[in-house]
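Why should sequence recovery work at all? Because a backbone constrains its sequence more than one might expect. Tight turns favour small or flexible residues, buried strands favour hydrophobic ones, and helices have their own preferences. The token representation captures these environments compactly. In the example below, the structure is given first.
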């Protein structure tokens, strides 16, 4: 699949897709005309990368996590990686608590 097709499937522009190639090299073949030809699993890889970036993970940690990714969007335990996820998880939990409090404040103000 061409980069434009992958961009449409994932809702991502072409520029980040090229960056993601450096995070997790995909099985990309270069056609005779110089176009990238992405494999069928590229969509799942892009979705994993976007979700992990949104969770606040560094690209280096994502590079380590992607081999643990399963097609359904989950991550299976990988040796040496689980401990590295505890800090980002704690930050996400803190953000979720803050958002919950902010939502409650807004709801009370609306009532």
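From this structural description, the recovered sequence reads:
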């Amino acid at each position: 699949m061409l980069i434009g097709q992958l961009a449409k499937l994932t809702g991502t522009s072409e520029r980040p897709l090229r960056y993601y190639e450096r995070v997790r090299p995909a099985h990309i073949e270069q056609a005779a005309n110089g176009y990238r030809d992405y494999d069928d699993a590229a969509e799942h890889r892009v979705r994993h990368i976007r979700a992990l970036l949104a969770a606040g993970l560094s690209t280096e940690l994502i590079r380590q996590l992607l081999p643990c990714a399963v097609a359904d969007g989950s991550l299976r335990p990988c040796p040496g990686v689980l401990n590295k996820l505890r800090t980002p998880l704690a930050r996400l939990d803190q953000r979720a608590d803050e958002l919950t409090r902010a939502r409650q404040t807004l709801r009370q103000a609306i009532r």
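A few observations help interpret the result. DSSP finds five helices and two strands in the chain.
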